[in-house]
Each structure stands twice: as C-alpha cells, then as structure tokens.
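Side project, low priority. Logging it here so it doesn't get lost.
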Amino acid sequence: MWTNAWKALDAIRIGDVLRQKHNELSGILTTSVVSGLSTSEISFKNVLLEILENELPRGTIRYSSKVVHVQDAGFFKSIHLSDGTILKSKVLIGCDGMHSNVAKFLGFSKPAFLSRSAIRGFIDFKDGHGFEPKFFQFFGKGVRYGVIPCDDNSVFWFFTFSPSPQDKDIEEDPVRMKQFVLSKLGKVSENIRVVFENTNLNNMLCSPLRFRHPWELLWGNISKDNV
C-alpha cells in the first residue's frame, strides 16, 4: 500500500496493528531485465480485513455493498448501497476506487486510461521465500514488474505492460496471462522466476491502468459540504 492508504488506516487507528503483521522493507533494488544487472538500490487483503473487523466496532463493516449513489439530503447525505441499504451519514469520505460514485458526486470526470495494463499476483511459500525485506523492481523491453515480500512466507508481485491487439483478451485467460508474464521476465535470478512460475492461476488478476489528471485534484473541488 502507498502512503495515502496508510494515512487512511492511521486515521481509524489500525495502521500500527497492520504494520506488526508484515516485515518492514529496508530498501528498493532495481534491475534491468535486458542485462540482468542492478541499476540502483535504496537502503493482502485478508490480514487487513481481519484487523478491521477486530479493531472497529461490531456492525461497522459491510461486505459486497459498494456505494452506488449519493443523495443530498440537507445536512446529512443518503448513501445508497448495492445491497439496497440506505445509510444517513454526517460525514462521507470516498475511498471507493477509480469507479468512485463519491467522486462522481463531487463532479470529477471519469478516470483516463494509461494505455498500460497491470497483472497482479500473490503466492504463499509454506517453507519461507528467503527474500530480503526489499522491494525488488525490474524493467526493460517495454515491461516493468516487481516482487514485494509481505512477511516471511507470502509475496506480492505486479507486472505492467502495454497490451498489443493480440493481448487484448489476455485478462480473461489466466493460462495465457501466466505464459505471457513468464515470456517477458528477461534475465532474472531463478528465485525471482520461481515466484511467477509457482503462482496459482486463481491468485492472478489483470486490469487496465487508469488515473485522474493531477490538475483536476489540485484545482478541482475535492470536497462538498461534509463529503
């Protein structure tokens, strides 16, 4: 998770609890997949949900009930959820992703495509992965990917690329997705390659990357009353 995500978790006082569940990264190691040489070095959800459930008041969390509509009801805001529930809120903070209906209520335009896609994966090594607590990053030949140890056993990885017309259906086919990633790894050590080779097909997800233009956030109205 990036800095903004930790700020949100710290605001509800579970950031420190979550940090204790994972190893602290001590640096970033960047490697070229063309040469196999290091270029620079600077010295999952289940855990998050468990901590949220343990630390927040009972009944606070609702699963599979995203915000579908925000209705202005004077001082309060009526929040319509996908399960049909309607909540009245004194304060609404939108953290509902790129397709945010809270952002739509605030007048933001739809996020723009980056012309790149990302494949994300997760693997658990029962006997430990043996990686140092570092963010291992690789780039070259039009791709960028990284391997991040979460604790002594689990590893998160990502792989970004610019899809060609032949790759447009790759996100619907996990077998092709994995073959594509393995074919693009380049010159990397065997312990890095094993992470991708041994990742279960059910633990991989591909999606196009989107972003909001920075000037929209800097000069736009990021709040309206109590939203």
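Brief comment: The first helix runs from residue 3 to 11.
Revisit when time allows.
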